[in-house]
């Protein structure tokens, strides 16, 4: 969905919805290289409209779409203004046979560097690592917290079944190992 009208968002709020997720995906400048069906500005307008309708906004993007580090800086800076509460970062895992197969997988340290960059630019926001984190970070998966992540998303949303194994965070102690996914939907 590129744009959602305020009246619809207000109806959702009245029905009990409290948070709305709508990722900007990538920087304004890089967006036309990966999406041709709508404009980046429409995505930003939807996030701003959700906030104006009284919803808490969750908006981030996906890294590994052939963007530069400057594009990632731009995306983080563009997420400052609409006052989103939570910034999910997804890591592209190129799949053969899809249009994204042309992108090279990111190195784990580059992913961690990007998380740290977002934390530096957005010190007061929740930064959640989502799809692609296990495949992209491999053995460095637990380092997301040292890089500045606030949390991560569990389950099969933008992930594969192997991406939500609790033993991945065994190094964080028994409380992390026994943690259960939240009931909230993002």
How would you portray this structure in words?
By secondary structure, the protein is of the alpha/beta class. The strands form two sheets. A four-stranded parallel β-sheet has the order 3-4-5-6, covered by helices on one side. The protein has a two-stranded parallel ribbon with strand order 1-2. β4, α5 (108-121) and β5 (126-129) form a beta-alpha-beta unit. The longest helix is centred in the middle third of the chain and has 14 residues, at 108-121. It is 34% helix and 11% strand. It has eight helices and six strands; from the N terminus they run αβααββαβαβααβα. The protein has one domain (6-177): Alpha-Beta Barrel (TIM Barrel), CATH 3.20.20.70. α4 runs parallel beside α5.
Total strands: the figure is 6
First and last CA, distance: 15 Å
Going by helix content, strand content and strand pairing, the class is alpha/beta
Largest sheet: 4 strands, parallel
Strand order across the largest sheet: 3-4-5-6
Q: Oligomeric state of the chains?
A: single chain
Poorly predicted runs: 174-186
State Rg.
16 Å
Number of domains: 1
Can you give the helix content as a percent range?
25-40%
Helix and strand element order? HEHHEEHEHEHHEH
- Number of H- or I-type helical stretches: 8
On the 0 to 100 scale, the average pLDDT is 85
Beta fraction: 5-15%
CATH topology: TIM Barrel
Q: Indicate the overall shape.
A: globular
- The H-level CATH homologous superfamily, spelled out, is Aldolase class I
- Return the CATH architecture: Alpha-Beta Barrel
CATH class: Alpha Beta
